[in-house]
Structure formats: structure tokens, C-alpha cells
Amino acid sequence: MEISTVHESQFLRGNDFYFFILDKTESVSGLHQHDYYEFTLVLTGSCRQEINGKRVIMERGDFVFIPVGSYHQTFYDYGVTRILNMGVSKRYFSEHYLEMLPSCFIASQCYAMSNAFLTFIEATLSTLDIHQNECEEFNKLLTFYVVNRLRHYEDNPQLESIPGWLVQLVREMHKKSMFADNALENMVRLSGKTQSYLTRATNRYYQKTPGQIINDIRINFCKKQLETTNFSVADISFEAGFSSPGIFINNFKKLTSFTPGNYRRSLACPKK
Questions:
Q1: Do residues 91 and 122 both lie within one domain?
Q2: CATH (domain of 262)
Q3: What is the spatial distance between Cα 72 and Cα 51, in angstroms, rounded to a whole number?
Q4: N or C: which end of the chain has fewer CB within 10 A?
Q5: Can you list the residues of the chain whose pLDDT is less than 50?
Q6: 8 A C-beta contact, residue 35 and residue 5
Q7: Last residue within a domain, chosen from 153, 184, 215
Q8: Domain that holds residue 100
Q9: In 53-87, which positions are buried (b, 16+ CB within 10 angstroms) versus exposed (e)?
Q10: How far apart are CA 183 and CA 178, in angstroms?
Q11: What tens digit of pLDDT does each residue of 68-82 get?
Q12: How confident is the model at residue 155, as a pLDDT?
């Protein structure tokens, strides 16, 4: 197995951090490792990370932390996925964060960010000029949150591996033909299980009901439409399967803290 190494000099270039917001549909890096620390947060959409031979599914609000020497690559099976990618120099991380890491943590693990902090990140990104010094404070705060999350995760029970049938089901539900109309009926039918069994499984492995999973998928679809088209909010809401624009707006604001119109306007935020 050939594993390439990405060096600090290629991205950090003597800086303490690098910070990208990327809309990804495929991975071009292949299997690789770093000589610096890195974490990736999903802002919109879904993807799979393979870390040290284990694959984990990441949804909106999930992040993975990649320590020095861990090999990984990303798979984008669900269309466009918006990610926030942060690199931290080995020197700076060792000086400021290394002592915070637990003595043992799982690198090949997906961690969930609190909804309140994710909302803060999205609101900050809508106004943050990442070419200015204020970005440095944001980098420090976000890295502190991530490392502190790892520090306290050891007190929580390790999540069980998600069954293959459920992984495949959620993947299929990202197809527009599945979530736009009769989504719950489609999900139950595709699962081959009873609705009550399916609900127990999604609650156990995703801590969500089937309806919440469908709602998340629809909101992700709507975010992509707001990002890439000029379609009206009403048209987008009906296309995603919401019964009315009002229900869509309420659900969108609950998950993102933005109205759809404000979210679309926030996309003027500069990106590297």
C-alpha cells in the first residue's frame, strides 16, 4: 500500500495554521498522511473518510481529527460537499494543544460538533474576512474546541459500527427521487424493515429518527441549491419535498440559524 506524505511546507509555509473552505465532489489527494495536524468539518452534505483503514460516514456538523502520521483519504459519494479544512503546524500544536489531547483517543472516529457551536461557526464564516488577522483568532478558537471535544470524548461510550444495510439505506436516501416525494415510505420500503425497527436502528446508530434524517438530507439539498442556483426559495422548498415554503424556512432556520435568503446572501464570504 503506497501512502504519500504531505509536508507542512506545501500548505502552511511557515504559518501556524492553514484554513480552507472547499466545495468538493471528489478527492484528488488519494491515500496520504501529514507531518502536521489536521481536522475536517462538514458544513454541507455528506462524505466518507477512510482513516487508518477504517471508513466513517460524516454528515453536517461532524468532524474528524487527523494526528501526525495517520493515513487517510476522503470519498464524496453524495454530490457536492462543503467542508472546512484546518491544518495546524506540528510546532504550534505541540506548544499549545498537545497536552490537552487524551492519552488515548480514536483517530478513525467521527465526532459530532454541538449544534450551537456549529451555528456560531456558520455565522462567523458569513462575516469573517479570512485574509485578515481576525482569522487567526478564529483558527485558535476552533482548534481549541476540536481538541477539547476529543479530550472529553473518552468519557463517552464508543459508538458501535453502523450496519452495512443502514449505511447503504442512508446513501440511497440522498437520491432526489427518494427524498423529494413520499420519503418516509421510500425509506421504509428500501430498508426491508418495519418502520418501528427502522426507527430503533436510526435512533441507536445516528441518534435521529428516520424523519430527522430525511429532513437533514432535504436541508442539505436546499443549501446546495441556494449556493449554486438562482431558484426562488419557494421553488427550492417544493423541489426538496417540503409541503410549504413556510415549513421549509422554519426547518432551515432551526438547523442553520439563517433564513434561506440570509444564507444565500452570506455566500459572498471570501474563500481561499
A1: yes
A2: 1.10.10.60
A3: 4
A4: N
A5: 154-159, 269-272
A6: yes
A7: 153
A8: 4-153
A9: eeebbbbbbbbbbbbeebbbbbebebbebbbbbbb
A10: 6
A11: 888 899 988 777 888
A12: 43
123 plus 169 within the same structural domain: no
Closest by CA position to 105, among listed 51, 58, 142:
51
Q: Are 242 and 215 in contact (CB under 8 A)?
A: no
Last residue of a domain, one of 153, 178, 198: 153
pLDDT of residue 48: 86
Same domain, 54 and 145: yes
Bridge partner residues of 229 (DSSP): none
Given a contact cutoff of 8 angstroms between Cβ atoms, the answer to whether 218 and 179 are in contact is yes
Task: Give me the pLDDT at residue 270, please.
Answer: 43
Judge residue 190's burial from the number of C-beta atoms within 10 Å of its C-beta, 0-12 exposed, 13-18 middle, 19 or more buried: middle
In a domain, 130, yes or no: yes
- Whether 27 is covered by a domain: the verdict is yes
Strands 81-88 and 54-58: unpaired
- At residue 59, the pLDDT reads 86
pLDDT at 68: 87
Same domain for 32 and 127, yes or no, is yes
E strands, the chain, in order: 4-6, 17-24, 32-34, 37-44, 47-51, 54-58, 62-66, 72-75, 81-88, 111-112
Q: Could you tell me if 148 and 198 lie in one domain?
A: no
Cβ atoms 12, 18 nearer than 8 A:
yes
The Cβ of residue 244 has, within 10 Å, a number of other Cβ atoms equal to: 11
48 bridge partner residues: 57, 75
Burial class (CB in 10 A: 0-12, 13-18, 19+), 132: exposed
Kindly tell me the sign of the dihedral angle through the C-alpha atoms of 148, 153, 154, 156: positive
Does 271 fall in a domain? Answer: no
What is residue 172's predicted lDDT score, i.e. its pLDDT?
Answer: 92
